[in-house]
Amino acid sequence: MGSWMLLLLHFHLVLCVPLPVPSNVSISSFNMEHTLSFLPGPETPSSTRFKVEVLRFRKKSWREVADCSKLTAGQTCNLTRAIRDPFDYYQARVRAFAANRTSNWTVSEQFQPLSDTVLGPPDVSVSGCGNCLLLHLRVPPIRGLQQLQDFHGELVFHVRRTRDGAQFGLNLQYEEEIVITYLEPGVEYCVTVAVKTLFNSHSVTSKPHCAFTSPPPSSSLYVVYGLLGAFSALGFLLLGLVVYCIQLGVKRRRPPGALSYLLLQGLDHGGAPPELSGQISAMQLHKEGSVDCLLTAHRPVQPLRSSSEEEEDCGQSLTSDV
Length: 322
Prior knowledge:
four-stranded antiparallel β-sheet, alpha+beta, five-stranded antiparallel β-sheet, 27% strand, 29% helix, 322 residues, disordered C terminus
């Protein structure tokens, strides 16, 4: 009799002891998609299930979430359908149950969809347009909102020049096509974009999207420009060399100006050529030509003679002078 009483008391204690309370009950949201997560209490039996209820503040009543009535440990609950009004406030609660045992409820903090959801980055494509960048934007769909304008939203741009790291920021109203002007042509810029609203400060910045303002010269163009420069320099060098050689040849064939000047001065005054003792030898006079040969234009016109006769006269005149 005593043993049966002990056994019944044991079963009574087992049935009356509640299950461990769930912990870390919270609601997270991304682009108005809401998810509840929690952790089972310590020493929770593996056969334990969990149920979720949601409270809407305007209605002030808890409502069970049908899709989350038999969750297992580690599962999450999608509350997007249960939380429909983006302007209202909500709470969620979770408790464990198994056979005839249950746990107490664990309640989450207040959740306001419009201000607590995290806004993801828009889809971005960037192309150059000379001294500007052309951006095409598309905001991912947000449940319960027709357009981003419902958020009174704007876009936050962060522009960085990859060459030296110079950067600046812009806040612009949302448009599907945006032009960022007054940039340096032919330079690469990287742009990141995030969404900002009057009701929400939680947003994710997009990854950098990079583009050149105008297409950079290709490597083949650099080679062509280099060859053109080399050929141009070589051409100028050859032209200068030809001009120098021509001038040098003209100087060598020109008669000595000093000797001609002295001889002309002597004949113009009706006298003999000035003495050049110690300066000009007979051989030099023979090479340069005698006075009669150099100044034939000052004598009366003579009958035409052959070149051989003129050379003989020049030679005789030089011999007599010596």
